[in-house]
Design a protein that fits this description.
The chain has 276 residues and is an alpha/beta fold. Helix content is 29%, strand content 11%. It is built from seven helices and five strands, in the order H-H-E-H-E-H-E-H-H-E-E-H. The longest helix is centred in the last third of the chain and has 18 residues.
């Protein structure tokens, strides 16, 4: 009996020794309402920081955030994009803080962006919707210049600080900023009156996806990813028509571009698709 136990232990030990020195993280689409790929898996070639809208679930929400994340992963490959939501409670009341967002959420986004900036070969992009857009304003404007210089581009949707900040993010390059506001969305004009049009931003996901993709590719042309750190998938990023300057005029419409690929098992909430 003892010899049998010793035999089993030796087999288990041999199996463990045969494992790779480091386990590779699961590469997946953005299923569910949460994403912690930066804090769980560390640096990747592209780091995407997202701030959800008021009272949306999780840290990604259930509207623009997961779709924008998957749009980026469809273009660049899931293994190359680390999506990270900002963990903050977006209550209705927190819209009334100075600057339009709670200080703990601003601090958390700044911490994530500053941590991402320590990844030597990563390109950082950020985005937010509604209260999350205000949070993005306040977080980015308060960063050190060294961290701002590492941010490739920022997009906001239904931006509650559009009017207050003059259609830009203070102290940040307007050439790396896209502020998307629907015609008739009153929150973009300095009020917090919410009308149905404020909930109609999913249609802008292709516009934002290809804007960010183009900025990333432009940056990569100047500062390419080191050999072996980025495996480009077999996709083609279509030419991007002129994008309206921020904030968009009333006649602006979402870009008419080829639809993004659909993730496998898109209806299987809670499951992950693995990519090697």
């Amino acid at each position: 009996m003892v010899s049998l136990v010793l035999l089993l232990l030796s087999i288990c030990a041999a199996g463990v020794s045969a494992l790779p020195a480091t386990l590779q993280p699961r590469q997946s689409w953005t299923f569910g309402y949460w994403a912690h790929e930066l804090t769980e898996f560390g640096c990747r070639p592209i780091i995407f920081i997202w701030a959800k809208a008021t009272i949306e679930p999780g840290n990604m929400g259930n509207t623009v955030g997961p779709r924008l994340s998957d749009g980026l992963k469809a273009v660049f490959g899931p293994a190359n994009v680390a999506t990270q939501g900002v963990d903050y409670w977006g209550f209705i009341e927190t819209n009334f803080y100075p600057g339009g967002a709670p200080p703990w959420g601003i601090y958390d986004m700044q911490l994530l962006l500053s941590s991402a900036a320590t990844c030597p070969n990563s390109k950082i992009i950020a985005a937010g919707y509604s209260q999350g857009a205000a949070l993005t304003h306040r977080a980015v404007e308060g960063l050190s210049q060294a961290v701002k210089d590492k941010i490739t581009a920022v997009v906001t949707f239904g931006d509650t600080q559009t009017w207050q900040d003059g259609g830009r993010i203070k102290n940040f390059d307007t050439n790396r900023t896209l502020i998307i506001c629907n015609a008739g969305d009153a929150v973009c004009t300095g009020t917090l009156y919410v009308f149905p049009v404020h909930f109609d931003y999913v249609k802008w996901v292709p516009t934002a996806t290809y804007y960010l993709a183009q900025k990333l590719l432009d940056d990569a042309a100047v500062r390419p990813w080191p050999n072996g750190s980025f495996v480009f998938p077999n996709v083609t990023v279509p030419g991007i028509p002129p994008i309206p300057s921020a904030p968009q005029p009333p006649e602006a419409v979402p870009l008419s571009l080829p639809p993004l690929p659909t993730p496998n098992n898109v209806g299987a909430m809670g499951s992950n698709v693995l990519f090697s």
